[in-house]
Amino acid sequence: MPRSALTGTRIRERRTMIGMRQADLARLAGISPSYLNLIEHNRRRIGGKLLVELARNLGVEASALTEGAGAALIDTLREAAAGHGEAEADLPRLEEFAGRFPGWAGLIAERHRRVRELERTVEMLTDRMTHDPFLSASLHEVISAVTAIRSTAAILADTEDIDPDWQRRFHRNLSDDSRRLAEGAQALVAYLDEGTEDPGVQSSPQEEVEAFLRARDWHLPELERSLPPDPARIVAEARELTSGPARELALAHLKRYRRDAELMPLQRFSEAARGAALDPGALAQAFGVDPGAAFRRLAALPEDRAGGPVGLVACDGSGTLTFRKPVEGFSLPRFGAACPLWPLYQALSRPMAPVRAVVELGGATPQRFLTYAICQPVLAAGFDGPQVLEAAMLILPEGTVALPRMAAQPVGTSCRICPRRGCVARREPSILADGF
């Protein structure tokens, strides 16, 4: 049912909500109760002065009666209904439901958003518990201390005539190992407590750099100027960069960012990007750069210049992710390997061969993205050095660009948290196979 056809229903619901009689509203609006009754049952269309007068007496804006629930609310309710047979059958009445029961509609939408947030948190924490190097090292330390204490205690318990001098040594070992166990356990608990408050806590130099860039929306306007400041000064003043390795990585990134900005000036590049529908191949040819540079430049554009969010992920020859700029709906794992079906890894197996593909992320509401991927050699040691490869994948959500007509490749984030069943590339069972 079109939204405009529900104006009468909204008038009736609003009047009932504020406890006004039909006759009283008709009198205030200067019409007969019978005519208002026809309006409220959507048998007469209204507009203009009468609509404004009814809205004024009902204490709402006229748009609230004609437009009903906002588009965002309707879209969220539509997402919540996805995958539920009975709810999907009632989708044609979704606008009517939201108009007649705005409170319930808002509650369902809010609960659905909360469930999505919790799903993302579970994915993030599961990924972290599985691959976090600090957790692994801390648990190793705890197990080592417990094993040492157990061995020493067993010797003392099983040896009746132990020499007093050796007995003192064992007691001292027990004391040292117990203190080491307590310190390790305290550090582990403190780390987990900190991570509970902030699931995105940084535990590696790469994450510090990504937090630094994320705080600036991945765009550095100071490096876009004709006379930019020294990147080293920007790095030195960044509070997110607390370790030497993180500052070193950030400095390398900023220097490359500045080179890209010089080759592809912001104003010219953003205009060309909109004209080329964000096609990195066309942009690379227009500015005389390699496709990887065009990928990076597109990912560094502010959303208003790009026309929407743009994601980017890069990996080295081992498949390890070395850079992550996520977009809504396309989660990127913090640790370990990602989905082997990503075009990123297809490109890695075919250096210098461009890959373009539409991918579909699994979930309650599958989302589609247009991806571009390419793998390029990095001649860090010249032609005589070992071959070093770097692959990158540009991620464009469906709302940012129009998707081409091609079959979508089903993909996930990583096997452990991918809900897809029967995947030929699965490495391990998923904890989300049966959903949340």
From TrEMBL:
Family matches, as InterPro entries: Cro/C1-type_HTH, Lambda_DNA-bd_dom_sf, ScfR_C
Highest taxon in the source lineage: Bacteria
Domain HTH cro/C1-type, first and last residues per copy: 11-65
Signal peptide region: none
Protein name: XRE family transcriptional regulator
Taxonomic lineage: Bacteria, Pseudomonadati, Pseudomonadota, Alphaproteobacteria, Rhodobacterales
